[in-house]
Amino acid sequence: MSTQDSIILKAHLNKRDGRVTAEYSIIPITTLNTADPRGGRDIQTVSINAEIEKLNEEFASASANETRRRIILERIRFFETRRNTIRHAFELNGVSDIKFLE
What we know:
The protein is of the alpha+beta class. It has one domain (5-100). Helix content is 40%, strand content 38%. Strand 1 (5-16) and strand 2 form a beta hairpin. The longest helix has 27 residues, at 66-92. The chain is elongated.
């Protein structure tokens, strides 16, 4: 994990029989730095899961370029490791009643 990694915590509050219950879900997110056309850089927050999906699509369409496929596969593994590390951090701290959205 790094300072680029974070989560969105969604709290789902329900009222039934006069009682309020809560369910929590987590969306792992990260920030990406991309080149800006003006010579600077743009910082964009993205869902790690969405980034993995995008890379999987790129991987499928890069079938003829073995070097490109290897680079994309490394990026997929990189983001999968980040996502799994976030999940593991919660498990290590005894948090088990949170749903991870993937």
